[in-house]
Amino acid sequence: MSSLIYLGLLLFIVSVYSVNENVFCYYGTWATYRHGSGKFGVENIDPYLCTHIVYSFLGISDDGSLKILDEYLDLEENWGRGNIKKFMNLKETNPKLKLMFAVGGWNEGSLGFSNVARDSLKRQKFASQVLQFCLDYGFDGFDVDWEYPGQRGGEVLLDKDNFVLLLKDLHNKLSPKGILLTVAVAAAESSSSISYDIPSISRYVDFILLMAYDLHGPWDDNVGLNAPLYESDLDQTAIERQLNVNASVHYWLRSGAPKNKLILGMPLYGRTFSLRDSTKTAVGASHNGPGIAGVYTNEPGFMGYNEICEKKLSEHWSRIWEPQQQAPYLIFNKNWISYDDSESLTLKAQFVKDLGLAGAMLWSIETDDFIGNCGKGKFPLLNVVSSIIRSGVTEETTTTISPTTTSTSEPTEFICPSDGLFRDPKDCSRFYLCAGANKYDFFCPNGLLFDINSSTCNWPNLVDC
């Protein structure tokens, strides 16, 4: 049995996709045009690590038509590559997997959505075409990624209400057919309050995917963390104190978003800066603008985790942990990178579990170390998040993790040899995630044992214990 099918069977056994165990994964199709180890296609997707995978992106036309953005890649007609059909074939390997597609994204902008949302006939046309597209290809759901209502050229005074009307029309078309409707939204209050009627949105969608990243970046005056979990002493103004995961989640909750619909988005990429002074490197230091680009993504100010971990291995970067905001950054000369790693994503996944949110979302899987070039296996970050969201976890740590984290397990004598997953030498049903200074204690469910060969829980007769 191939390792992919074996891993898939295993994760199918231990997962039931309950209401609070959702792992949404965005798949950026443009990664197929990257070179070398950055090239990512449907064949690179593990169909068992996510509960939902979102094909990104299609577009929206001013007349309400659904728009294919890359006909050569997406479709089979005219000798196209038929990527959508290949994507849908993932369900042949894992029938439990939910496959969705998204319209929008940053590059699609706001004006097209705004033009359609304000016109009843255009909304109906769009909703009808989305439904037909789902039925034609067999999609399980549709994701609206309007970035952002009332902003970036949209109608400031009208988009918030019109967005609700658009979602209502989509809901009325999709829900009777059992097709999921989700929405990707800005996280921070300063942006969300402009764009969203949160109680009304919550009424019409199945899940709300909170894009809790890009909270700081090279567009700011000073270096900051891309997706800090908590605020720090440097955050002095009301807006600054909004720019963290904790504040964003609680804003959405108190504004009417149900916990069982709120999905916390987490980044599999980092933001890079060029420091003004190599001796002033702490969060809040001055910078000259966007930093180095990744070798695969080729965008100044941005690097995928796969690019970051490869660079960290090949050069003498210093990793610094920011204790208040619970996230790392890297320094090398005047280069500064804010990113998430297994330690910070472990804390975010625990945050989701502690609050009882509906699950996690990853943007986006093609920038994880999907090949395993950095020595921690394929998809190391996605694996960490998925394992916590979809199973019970207790924690042992030498540092304070978060205000809500508690230990529910007696400490063991196990000492982490390095970062990674390790089985308890005395109990084969128990294993540990070692991340930086922290150690997290897991138990396999349903009488399964931890298999050191696949780093997953497996049937006892298949485990050497």
Shape: globular
Q: pLDDT average, as an integer? A: 90
The CATH topology of the largest domain is TIM Barrel
Which structural class best describes the helix and strand composition? alpha/beta
* Oligomeric category: single chain
Keywords: Carbohydrate metabolism, Chitin degradation, Chitin-binding, Disulfide bond, Glycosidase, Hydrolase, Polysaccharide degradation, Signal
InterPro entries: Chitin-bd_dom (IPR002557), Chitin-bd_dom_sf (IPR036508), Chitinase_II/V-like_cat (IPR011583), Chitinase_insertion_sf (IPR029070), GH (IPR017853), Glyco_hydro18_cat (IPR001223), Glyco_hydro_18_chit_AS (IPR001579), Glycosyl_Hydrlase_18 (IPR050314)
Family: Belongs to the glycosyl hydrolase 18 family. Chitinase class II subfamily.
EC number: 3.2.1.14
Task: Explain what you see.
By secondary structure, the chain is of the alpha/beta class. It folds into 2 domains: 22-267 and 341-390, TIM Barrel, CATH 3.20.20.80; 420-458, no CATH class. The protein is 27% helix and 23% strand. It is built from 13 helices and 21 strands. The strands form 4 sheets. It has an 8-stranded parallel beta barrel, surrounded by 8 helices. A hairpin with a 4-residue loop joins β20 (449-451) and β21 (456-458). The two termini are 21 Å apart. The model is unreliable at 1-17 and 393-411 (pLDDT under 50).
What is the secondary structure topology, with strand pairs?
Blueprint: H1 3-14, E1 22-28, E2 52-60, E3 66-67, H2 71-74, H3 83-88, H4 90-93, E4 98-104, H5 111-117, H6 120-137, E5 141-145, H7 159-174, E6 180-186, H8 189-195, H9 198-204, E7 207-211, H10 245-254, E8 262-267, E9 269-275, E10 287-290, E11 302-304, H11 305-314, E12 318-322, E13 327-332, E14 335-338, H12 342-355, E15 359-363, H13 380-389, E16 393-397, E17 420-423, E18 430-435, E19 438-443, E20 449-451, E21 456-458
Helix pairs in contact: 5-7, 6-7, 12-13
